Every structure is written in C-alpha cells, then in structure tokens.
Amino acid sequence: AETMQVDSNRLRRLLDEANRFGAGSPTGGINRPGYSEADAQIRQWALSTMKSEGLETWMDGVGNVFGRWGPAAGPCVMSGSHLDSVPEGGRLDGVLGFVCALEAVLTLRDAGITLPHAIEVIGTAEEEGRFGGMLGSQAITGVVTNEWLDAAKDADGVKLADAMRQRDLEPSAALSRCRRQGGSDIAAFIELHIEQGPVLERLGKAIGVVTSISGTTNPIYTLKGEANHSGTTPMRLRRDAVAAFARVATSIPAIIKREGTPDAVMTIGKVEVQPNFVHTVPGSVKFCCNIRDSDTATMKAMEAAFTAEVHRICSDSRLAVEVDNSLGVLGAVKLDERIQSVIHKEAEAVLGPDWSHNLQVMPSGAGHDAQNLQTICPSGMIFIPSKGGVSHSPEEFTEWSDVLLGAQVLLNSLAQLAGLPVTAARL
Questions:
Q1: Which of 135, 172, 203, 261 has the maximal Cβ count within 10 Å?
Q2: For residue 404, what is the enclosing H or E element?
Q3: CA distances (Å), origin 139, targets 149, 182, 326
Q4: What does DSSP assign to residue 114?
C-alpha cells in the first residue's frame, strides 16, 4: 500500500467542488447547517460523484450518504466524516474527512487493487448539533429515539421533524431506514479530521493519533433575582443577577484545578440577561456552561462542583436558581487501541525515519462522529494541524502538505484494515 500515492490535484478538486455548497458569504465562511438547502445539495453532489466513480451509493433515513467499493457482501471498513457545517464555518471541518476517504478509494481503484473487504465512504448528517446531537452517527448506532426526533428543535425554534420533511426525509420512518443499527457489518471506522486546536502546530507535528474523545455536558442555569430601578435601589438591597453571575463565572478556574484532569475545560459561551436595559438592575441571567473532559467521571464531578458553587453564590446573594439538564450528556470515549496502532504504524511509514518528530499521540477535546461509531465497532481518528488552532471560522486553514500527509496515512490505514482478515480488524 505504501507505494500508492493519493492524487493531490484530484483531492483538491473534490474539496473545491464540495465547498461550492454553502459558499458566497461576505466573510468567506461556509454555511451548510444540517438540513439546510446547501446541506441537501452537498449530499446530492456526494452521491452523484461517488456513483459516477463506480461506487454503490445510497442515502439512509436521516440523510447519511454512503458509497461502497469492493465486495457487495460481507463486512466493510468505513471512513468519512460530516458534510454539514456551523454557520460561517471553514472549508475543512468535516468535509475534508469525507473527500480524503473518497480519494483513498479512488487511489486504490486506479491502482487495480482488489481487497478482501469493502471500503465504505460515509458523509454523516447533522453532526454540528443544530438540533442538539450528532444525529447522523447516533442514528447509525441506534441511540436516537423517535421521541427525541419529534421533540428536537434548533435555537430558532425550528422543529427537526419539519426540517427533515423539507428534505424529503420522513421522520417517522427515519430510524428504521438507518444503516445497520447494531453495526454488525462494520469491521472498523477511521475518521480523518483537522485538529481544531493548537497542539500539533505548537509542537511542530504533522499527524495526530487520537486516543480518546472528551465527553461533554451542557447544564443550563437561570439565576433569578429582582429587576429594579438602577438609580433608586441601594446596593445593599439589590438582588442583582449579573453581580452573582460574575462571581459564578470567575469560580471556574478553581473548580478545574480542584476537580479536572489536564484535559478539562469549562466554557460559558451563551448568556441571556433580563431585562437587559441600561437603567435596570438585572433581574435574571440564563447561561449554559459547556463542560468537557477526557474522563466522564471527572466531567460529572466538575459539573457537580460547579452546580454546588452556583447554589452557594445564589444563596449568598438572595437569588433563586433553576438548573436544566435537558441538553444531556455525551460520555468520554476511549478509541480502539488496535486501530490506533495501525494508524501509528502507517504514519511512521509515511513520515519516514524522522517520524518521531512528526507524530503525536493525543486526546481530542472536540466531539466527533468517531466517538459514536466506537460504541458499535473499533474506531480511530487521524488529526492534522489547524493553523493557529482556529476552527468553526472562515480563518480555518491547514497547509496542503499536511492535508496530503493525512490523506496518505488514511489511505494506507484503510488498505491495511480492509486487507486483513476481518477477525483481526475487530480485535
């Protein structure tokens, strides 16, 4: 497999073609939210492109798209990533993993290779969480319920069921039409992705072998005080929700230090103040705290400590507090050690004698489809560097030489896994 080279020009062409969908923003950002028009268009493009290249193609009930190359029956090795984007996102997040998986298959096909096991390319649906989950990969692994599909809404109140129907996907039949719940015929899954963080670039490394994916929980807190006139309410008589919130927010570093692992992060990224008027003491603050750690028990301990601190501060400030856990918990996931070792070995071969200076074994702080697939089959991830650690932004950028290295490691790893007896690939 090591003598086969991915086709740089074809890979760039595939990536450019994919990014026609959702382009055109003045910022240069990509806009392909799950189940938007642009998202539907890239899925049709993916299906027609794979079909024209001779892959067997289909779309499942939630909009995941598949292309299979190799034996029609029997287990497959799967690779790909998501095709949707965040609003004003970048040109690499998700879609690069899909086009690199397709390029790997096309390189194998052009070399006249026949492998004992099929490779399936997947473009997953709604990974970015417009409706609060990673719907595409979670539907494949069988954790999504019809009740959740019926209830889910986005931040603007749009119902998931309505958004799906707009794309000719019938919600009531969606889950029964999802590929292989139980996953018995996926022997392995590998996802190539940009790191979306600064670690590889800072260390001067080209390839990351991902060991685990952080869990995340998103409790929502509402601090309830009393709105009142800012000129006539003495400081000692105020029940100021923002003043309490400021104390809550600054408690985070100490909680991480006390409860977290070195991978722990906590972020308050969304805050709503009421009445939000210059001359009024704030009566309420509603905020979401995003808590992540590579260890699920640690993540829950941080959440418990933070919630206790919120209650303590609110009691001290004569405020009431409500806690809403409806956004749920995603547990941390350890990725398959055998798949990690295959990726590591193939990366060593691609990087050459200097591999130890260019290869990093590392956790992922961001969530990915691979964490869901790991629940039904051995899964792994390949990271490539993100310039400045920037992602979810038009400024997202990775050097093309790093893209090619990642694509080559992916190709060689897939060839290795698809060429092994399936019992070995499942270890």
A1: 135
A2: helix 400-419
A3: 10, 10, 19
A4: -
**Pair 90, 30: CB distance under 8 Å:** yes
CA torsion sign for 415, 420, 421, 422 is: negative
In angstroms, the CA 230 to CA 245 distance is 17
Would you say 96 and 1 are in contact if contact means Cβ atoms under 8 Å apart? no
Q: Could you give the CA distance from residue 384 to residue 375 in angstroms, rounded to a whole number?
A: 24
Structure tokens at 313: 């501060």
3-class DSSP assignment, residue 422: helix
Q: Which residues contact 250 (CB under 8 A, 6 or more apart)?
A: none
Q: CA-CA distance, 186 to 376, in Å (whole number)?
A: 8
d(CA 182, CA 171): 20
Interatomic CA distance for residues 161 and 173, integer angstroms: 11
With 0-12 CB in 10 A as exposed, 13-18 as middle and 19+ as buried, what is 371?
A: buried
DSSP secondary structure code for residue 263 in this structure: T
Identify residue 256 by its one-letter amino acid code: I
The token pair that represents 362 in the structure block = 């590392």
Nearest by Cα to 103 from 12, 195, 3, 1: 12
List beta partners, residue 209. Answer: 361, 382
Tokens of 303: 């959440």
Question: How far is it, in rounded angstroms, from Cα 100 to Cα 137?
Answer: 18
Q: What is the value of pTM for the model shown?
A: 0.90
279-312 b/e (C-beta count within 10 Å ≥ 16 → b): ebbbbbbbbbbebbbbbbebbbbbbebbbebbee
